[in-house]
Amino acid sequence: MSLTDGAKRWFYVAVQCTWGGIQTCLGLFLFLCYRDAPHEVYHGAMYTKWKLEEGISLGLFIFAPDRDEDWCRQMAVHEYGHTWQSMMLGPCYLVVVGIPSIIWSRSRRCRQARREKGIPYSAFYTERWADDLGAKMTGVM
Q1: How far, CA to CA in Å, does 26 sit from each of 4, 94, 113, 140?
Q2: What three-state secondary structure class fits 23?
Q3: Confidence band for 1, pLDDT divided at 50, 70 and 90
Q4: DSSP 3-state assignment of 33?
Q5: Inter-CA distances, 106 with 20, 67, 128, Å
Q6: What is the 3-state secondary structure (H, E, C) of 82-107?
Q7: Helix (H, G, I), strand (E, B) or coil at 56
Q8: pTM for the predicted model, two decimal places
Q9: Backbone conformation region of residue 96, classed left if phi is above 0, alpha if psi is from -120 to 50, else beta
Q10: Alpha-carbon torsion 95, 9, 60, 128, what sign?
C-alpha cells in the first residue's frame, strides 16, 4: 500500500515538528523575522527567498538567496536535502550537520582552502549528502 501525496506531506510535517522540533522551532523564528520576504511551499517545506547570499535549512524551513530561476531551483533541491537530514537525525541534526556545515560555509580557513585548492563546496560530507538526498527526494538532478 502506498501513501498518497497528502499523507506523505502530513508525515513529513509531523516528523519535522516532533523529531526535528529543535531546528523547526529555530526555523520558525527565522521565518517570522523574514515574514515579508517571498515564500512558497516546496515539497512540504516552507521556502523563503531572502536577500542574504547564503542558504540555510532548519527543519521545515528553507532560506535561500533570491536569484535567477535555475540557480534557485538548484539551491532549493540542496536545502531540501538538508531537511531530510533533519528528519533522519532529529535532535542530532544541529551537531552532525548544522554546525559543521556552517563552519565549512563561513570559516575563513575553509573558504581559503576551497579557493586555493579548488575544492568544490559539495566535497564536504554534509553538503554532498544534502545534494544526494535532495535529488533523490525531489527527482531533480
Answers
A1: 29, 11, 30, 27
A2: helix
A3: very low
A4: helix
A5: 24, 20, 17
A6: HHHHHHHHHHHHHHHHHHHHHHHHHC
A7: strand
A8: 0.92
A9: alpha
A10: positive
Give kind and range of the element (H or E) at residue 46: strand 45-50
- What is the pLDDT, as a whole number, of residue 140? 86
Per-residue DSSP letter, 41: E
By CB neighbour count within 10 A (0-12 exposed, 13-18 middle, 19+ buried), where does 43 fall?
A: buried
Q: If you compute the radius of gyration of the chain from its CA atoms, what whole number of angstroms results?
A: 15
SS3 of 68, please? Answer: coil
Q: Provide the 10 A C-beta neighbour count for residue 92.
A: 13
- Residue 19 sits at φ, ψ, to 5 deg, of -60, -40
| Spatial distance between the Cα atoms of 103 and 47, rounded to a whole number of angstroms | 23
Please write the tens of the pLDDT for every residue from 75-115. 999 999 999 999 999 999 999 999 999 999 999 999 999 99
Distance CA 116, CA 13 (A): 41
Main-chain phi, psi angles of 80, to 5 degrees: -65, -35
